[in-house]
Design brief:
The chain has eight helices and no strands. It is elongated. The N and C termini lie far apart (56 Å).
Length: 118
């Protein structure tokens, strides 16, 4: 299945919504979505990010067909933050790694950062 076929499959079979509804959620025109779904127009990074954010879709599934279709992981939240605050890959990795730490490890890092500000 190609990327554009996955987008159509997602909309029709998983979300069960019209092109109009899908397009409105990701802020593109219905005709643009139709062109994406037929492979006439390439997906942009912005459209992919919007789909992932609005529908909690796994980016790797869209791009390569790997993994689960839907993603409810911290990564999807980090991707949303990255888009909202213009974070680069290093910023995202810092946040992801911080979230993986235990409470005591996070407390240690917070104490260290507090000491820097004093």
């Amino acid at each position: 299945m190609n990327t554009y076929e996955r987008i159509r499959y997602l909309r029709k079979n998983e979300l069960k919504i019209t092109q109009e509804e899908f397009a409105a959620k990701i802020d593109i025109s219905r005709s643009n979505l139709g062109n994406i779904e037929t492979g006439k127009v390439e997906l942009t990074d912005r459209v992919i990010s919007s789909i992932c954010r609005e529908f909690n879709v796994n980016k790797l599934w869209i791009l390569e067909g790997k993994g689960d279709i839907f993603s409810f992981t911290p990564e999807s939240v980090v991707d949303e933050l990255a888009e909202d605050f213009n974070l680069d890959d290093i910023d995202k990795k810092i946040i992801e790694k911080y979230l993986e730490l235990s409470e005591s490890q996070r407390a240690t890092i917070k104490e260290y950062i507090k000491s820097i500000f004093e």
